[in-house]
Amino acid sequence: MDVILFGPPGAGKGTQAKRLISQLSVPQISTGDMMRAERASGTDLGKRFESFMSAGKLVPDALVLELVEQRLKAEDAEAGAIFDGYPRTIPQAEALDSMLDRLERKIDVVVSMEISLAEQIDRITGRRTCVGCGHIYHVRYSPPPSEGRCANCGGELSQRKDDLEEVVRKRHEEYLANTAPLLGYYGAKGLVVTVNAVGSLDDVTARIRDAVAR
Ligand code: AMP
After folding, report:
1. Which of 33, 35, 49 has most ligand 1 atoms within 8 Å of CB, for mutation?
2. Does the C-beta of 59 come closer than 6 Å to ligand 1?
3. Tens of each residue's pLDDT in the chain, 214 residues
4. Which is nearest to 194 in space by CA: 210, 179, 181?
5. Which residues of 188-198 are buried (b: 16+ CB within 10 A; e: fewer)?
């Protein structure tokens, strides 16, 4: 099964994708996580992502496609994937359709997670991520039991550089200009199911599960 978790920054795509992995038995493919990993390893590709990401701009399509194409070839993605933060432009969506077509697959459902801008900013500026295992916390809504340390692996918690309010506003503008039009693209194919992304983690997971099972 191939599912897209769609929505603006801070909708909870990454958090919910991780919760769905075991239920759908397919991996999460997060281009943002993959780019941050490249950046952290200091690869040439990672260095090329840096300037776009820290300014809240989208990374050019050609660089993104290379990453996704490689990832889709991995054995664990043979039966499908949960796409999170990808596609983000119409050309990326067209490229994904072609890649899946070559694998005799197609997108089954696009879950559109709805949330207001005020809620996005509140969530994103309070977000802290474990550098060890990637677990996501929020300083108020899901704080770690011991301050500054991950409950799963003891790793250090850090704030993403692009999670500062001014960068979040830029990311939101990019979302409206380039990514929101994808709802029309997938809507025309009858693939979009809308869910309210505000509520407890369990409630939102249940809504997404229902949307996927429809
Ligand atoms: P995310 O972790 O999904 O919020 O992405 C963080 C940043 O990585 C974005 O603001 C972009 O700079 C970059 N990025 C992630 N995924 C994509 C994508 N599919 N297309 C272009 N840029 C991306």
Report:
1. 35
2. yes
3. 999 999 999 999 999 999 999 999 999 999 999 999 999 999 998 999 999 999 999 999 999 998 999 999 999 999 999 999 999 999 999 999 999 999 999 999 999 999 999 999 999 999 999 999 989 999 998 999 888 899 999 999 999 889 999 999 999 999 999 999 999 999 999 999 999 999 999 999 999 999 999 8
4. 210
5. eeebbbbbebe
Instruction: State both tokens at 10.
Output: 């801070």
For residue 117, how many other CB atoms are within 10 A of its CB?
15
Distance of CA 138 to the CA centre of its chain: 17
How remote is the CA of residue 82 from the centroid of ligand 1, in Å?
A: 16
Amino acid at 95: A
> Catalytic positions, please?
13, 88, 127, 160, 171
- Residue linked to tokens 């060890």: 132
10 ligand 1 Cβ < 6 A: no
Question: What residue segments make up the domains of the chain, in order of their start?
Answer: 2-27+74-213
- Tell me how far the alpha carbon of residue 115 lies from the centroid of ligand 1, in angstroms: 18
Question: What DSSP string runs through 110-132?
Answer: EEEEE--HHHHHHHHHTEEEETT
User: Does domain 2-27+74-213 fall into CATH 3.40.50.300?
Assistant: yes
Length of the chain: 214
By the 8 A CB rule, do 123 and 12 touch?
yes
